[in-house]
Backbone:
């Protein structure tokens, strides 16, 4: 029997853009590879995916994506090792989470074969687009949105699933300064915060702009009730090191269940770093900053990898974090990156060769 | 000096679809008129709007609308009176609210002239598309979304503003049955609930589907903390009549400031109907249903006009509302519709002739 991958029709570009790209000077997610995967959902079924030259999508003005925000996405990376072998990191977890997001947004789930074989076929074709510069990778963006028509506020009857690829450098440049938010919120109890749904991100832009005007790169979101608990950042889960214990908030329906987050918890266990998954109050973090027991704070996510936080702001005051010699952040980052780029053993079975 | 309207370039369709439309049998928002208005925002400026044949929009796959949900919209109607004169209802309020939504979603505001003159020019051209059947109107959908490119989770640098028109019949057909929600939420304190942002709607679809499986048409949203207070419905504000008093929840950053809602409050004042704007607990509504003091419940919105609720469900039990002879809902609906269709005096100055 034919696999799905064998059925994928590939239309190759006649004009590769790869020669125009400086792979040693990549920003994040602003250059796109030559091809994309496109798959349509109609009449209750996914059609066979197609790979075609990267190019514009045409939609009716009443397509529900424009009106009712039915859209979800994932963020992954492909890594190239010294032998030009290509690796993904826990890709089945992204597929699983994609379908969790789909359910919450009343969108159709995508079968594993469409996601995985689509991904592998596309990346196989675009192998030359994977940077090998340290700190760079091929950012992978699977996404789905409502293409079905109509102004009635109800789920669409047609969807598009795409995968696009962007060779990318670091998400943050330089020291990261964050603001603990006290007024705006990212998500509600019983809301969509745990889903990678488009609307969750647009809602963060305005408060993040206000924070940026005060000199912060990111907002750390707190609960919408009393802004008492530290939850997560725009595209990262948050870890706090209190003394020698690494603490992160439990996931909930307000917080994205990050793959980097859970990998850090697993690596820490192996490395005998004490971890706690529990609610973190803003008060205890401020107190720990004052009495010196707050050693580190960092963000964790596919795009940002592990990004140490240099300063956090709260109620008009800035708190600087110490610069440690042998930080948990740098130790854990080395471990995870070594697995991702196939520079070390992978005792967890996370690496996935293409 | 040329007005903006005089600068709008109009490209007329060569193939009108109007003969294919049965204006006596219209559903809601599924047929679109011959032309649309399109306006691009680039390099910090709005370009001159264009009117062109209704047709597909072409976007880069990395356009931020697909990924981060930056989209807002408005919902208005154009009404035709017995003399074929065309009227809008409080259109400047829609423009104002559009810009409030834009600010919260970190999108550029649209100048009043672009919104109003764009609207008037387009509707002037599409006058034949305004139904005159009772209960029908031309539904107007101004909307804006992020067309700028890139996978970085930050506001786009380019946007599109469009106005599309859909001759439409009633939003609901038959008796409306609603479910008071106890688990899912529509919005957070400090969130985007007060904005007409796409993501707010997609988030409602799944809980509404679950309610639909149990036989309800709509969900009545409650606060996300304890699901204690009645807030609003999917596309309507909610009114409750307790004894002879009409009660509706105060607007907040979780609730849309509906134009129908505030018009009802103003008409009620003139009609000597006693109103209260205050928090409404689910408990008091259930109690009032049990002791007979709950006389009416209805939804209010541009699409749904005033839609009486026949039954509400809560914690597995259904509560039927009485059928009143001379209900507030029917009285108020007649008043508002008579103003909209120019069948009565407009003491408020709400009607706006085109
Ligand atoms: C809101 C949010 N939190 C956390 C993360 C980190 O998740 P992951 O480690 O799976 O990339 C992301 C990015 O994917 C995110 O968008
Ligand atoms: C969430 C929500 N609430 C209430 C309303 C009613 O507002 P209006 O009366 O201005 O149409 C709408 C529809 O516009 C809405 O989308």
Residues:
């Amino acid at each position: 029997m034919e696999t799905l991958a064998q059925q994928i029709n590939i239309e190759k570009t006649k004009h590769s853009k790869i020669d125009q790209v400086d792979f040693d000077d990549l920003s994040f997610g602003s250059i796109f590879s030559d091809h994309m995967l496109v798959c349509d959902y109609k009449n209750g079924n996914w059609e066979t995916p197609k790979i075609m030259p990267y190019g514009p999508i045409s939609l009716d003005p009443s397509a529900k994506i424009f009106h009712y925000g039915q859209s979800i996405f994932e963020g992954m990376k492909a890594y190239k090792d010294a032998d030009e072998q290509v690796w993904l990191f826990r890709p089945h977890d992204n597929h699983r989470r994609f379908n969790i997001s789909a359910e919450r947004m009343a969108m159709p789930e995508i079968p594993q074969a469409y996601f995985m074989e689509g991904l592998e076929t596309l990346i196989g074709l675009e192998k030359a687009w994977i940077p090998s510069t340290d700190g760079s990778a091929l950012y992978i963006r699977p996404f789905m949105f409502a293409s079905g028509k109509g102004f009635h506020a109800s789920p669409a009857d047609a969807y598009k699933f795409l995968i696009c690829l962007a060779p990318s450098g670091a998400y943050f440049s330089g020291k990261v300064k964050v603001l603990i938010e006290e007024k705006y919120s990212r998500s509600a109890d019983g809301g969509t915060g745990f889903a990678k749904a488009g609307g969750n991100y647009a809602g963060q832009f305005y408060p993040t702009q206000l924070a940026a005007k005060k000199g912060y790169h990111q907002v750390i979101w707190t609960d919408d009730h009393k802004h008492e608990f530290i939850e997560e950042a725009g595209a990262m889960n948050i870890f706090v090191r209190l003394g020698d214990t690494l603490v992160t908030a439990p996931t909930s329906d307000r917080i994205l269940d990050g793959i980097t987050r859970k990998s850090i918890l697993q690596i820490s266990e192996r490395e005998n770093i004490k971890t706690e998954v529990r609610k973190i109050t803003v008060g205890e973090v401020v107190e720990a900053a004052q009495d010196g027991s707050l050693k580190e704070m960092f963000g964790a996510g596919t795009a940002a990898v592990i990004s140490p936080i240099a300063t956090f702001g709260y109620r008009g005051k800035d708190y600087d974090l110490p610069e440690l010699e042998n930080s948990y952040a740098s130790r854990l980052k080395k471990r995870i990156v070594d697995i991702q780029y196939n520079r070390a053993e992978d005792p967890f079975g996370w690496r996935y060769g293409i």
Q: What stands out?
A: DSSP finds eight helices and 20 strands in chain B. The longest helix of chain B spans residues 198-213. The helical segments of chain B are 4-7, 64-68, 91-104, 112-125, 198-213, 259-270, 282-291, 328-340.
